[in-house]
Fold this sequence. Notes:
The chain has one domain (about 10-445). Helices cover about 80% and strands about 0% of the residues. It has 15 helices and no strands. The model is unreliable at about 445-470 (pLDDT under 50).
Amino acid sequence: MIQDMTAGNPTRLILKFAIPLLIGNLFQQLFQISDIIIVGRLIGIEALAAVGSSAPIYFVVILITLGFTGGLTVITSQRFGAKDFDGVRLSVTHSLVAAFGLSSIMTALLLLFMRPLLKLMNVPAEIMSDAYKFMIILSGGLIMIVAYNLLSGFIRALGDSKTPLYFLIFSSILNILLNLWLIYSFKLGVIGSALGTVISITISAIMCLIYMLRKYPLLRIQRHDWKLNYHFMLEHLNIAVPMAIQFSVLSLGLMFVQSVCNSFGSNTIAAFTSALRIEQLAVQPMIALGIAMATYSAQNSGAGMISRIRTGVRNSSLISLSFSLFIALLVRFVGEEMVGIFIENPSQEIIAAAKQYLNISTVFYLFLGQIFIYRNTLQGMGDSMTPLTAGIVELVMRSFAAVYLAKHFGYIGICYAGPIAWIGASSVVFVGYIITIRRLSRGTSSLPNKWHNIRLCKYKQDCTLEGTPAE
Length: 471
């Protein structure tokens, strides 16, 4: 159901939007974690290490596409908030063209350079073959992954976070069934895991498209909506490209840490992989709250309602702090038992390494939660440069900590790389938000592209950047 977030109680609207996102994110993690559980239990430790050692490359690709498609749909959401429904449809067509171009280029690059990338990641020779097969199949299905992210982003831009949830649940269940079938019955190993992921996402994307066209007349594209406008495309790319770079910077930091971790051997790789999956589950409430703030701030910036953005950020920040404290305590006491979910009969070495990471990282979740709130709010308002700066700071601090601390203190140095980076990045986005919101409140700075004052000229190619017909 379409939800206008420019009217009503901000906290209630944000939580109402965030709860389906949380459930959806948990199923999406189940989607990813099912691969790890099934591979670890049905194939073995080396297969788990192959998937885990190559996972950062996959995360880089996924985060780049998430950042890019998320940036595109920011414009869609801002147009919806401004009640510019012609602009909404034009945003959809421009986003589709841009996303297709990105996915085509990335697929070609991955297919050409996958083996050198795996070698760069220090993937051990004994698991190189499985890691390569796993990543090549995922790379071939990238265009469908991008399609699903973009289509569900369009729906969320209109304030509907429930519909994407249903498709995530369906996709997660289908992924598990396909993985079990392809690995257990057909003995396809890691190939079966990758195929299950691609097939389930493809089916989910097709169903999402059919539903969107049937249920949302606002998103039904007409022939004239495909007329591309250079300035309007540039407005999309001005947000999408920095967000993609920011996400890639973040993922490069994770990839760098993983490459350092890979030098410690298969047991440490398996422990680190399991601990990261537990952490990804634990922080989903904070991630959902952040995504909700992106749509909330985008719609309200489109309507020019700055005070509502301030209220939403303040209340969401307090909620996130409460979540982070609760989750930190929960993971600290039950995290060790969760390792056994991923690996059958894990050794004491693996359990100890995973527990060590979780005991360190959970203390710093309060910083991580604030990153999600302020980064997504800034992006929703159209500010992609401050989050990009924070991402660069995070990359530098994470990489330095991983190399320097791992060299001098071993595996425990890797455990501190993330928390150190979180402190740096949260400081940048917090200060950036304070500066931006004060300028907007005082009227000394305008919203990006003056969303609350403009309407895109209808289907014309001779428009100025402000969206009015050229004289």
